[in-house]
Amino acid sequence: MPTRLNQVQPYALGLFRIVIGLLFACHGAASLFGVLGGAMGGGTVPTGTWPGWYAAVIQLVAGALVLVGLGTRSAAFLASGSMAYAYFKVHQPEALFPLQNSGESAALFCWAFLLLVFTGPGALALDRLFGAGRGAEAVRSEKQGAPVAA
Fold this sequence. Notes:
Elements: H1 2-33, H2 52-68, H3 72-91, H4 98-101, H5 104-119, H6 126-129, H7 134-143
């Protein structure tokens, strides 16, 4: 059973990345364009306001990049940091625990994106199509003593 799970791990990770990226991009689109119920139950975030508008831009752009798997680690790092900022500046001053301060989504997004920083995009990512994923595979092959194809 573990062997079979290990074989599909890149696809499970890719699916995880796609879902997390889509959900994050939807938050940004709702805040910027008023779609999907809009920001906080309706409307949009006023352009240029700190930190709401900038957070929404990060959510939309980083979420879309993570969704398609392009620059995944960098986009996930930016997204994770923005959610850490949101949690500690907006939610944590209200109460200590995420359940008390309504910060569960910020905390979960923060840790989910941080996981993607360390694991990479998994399967079905544009990073692999454009060759960004080849570097890690080459390093792994060299460590195992296998020759690396040019």
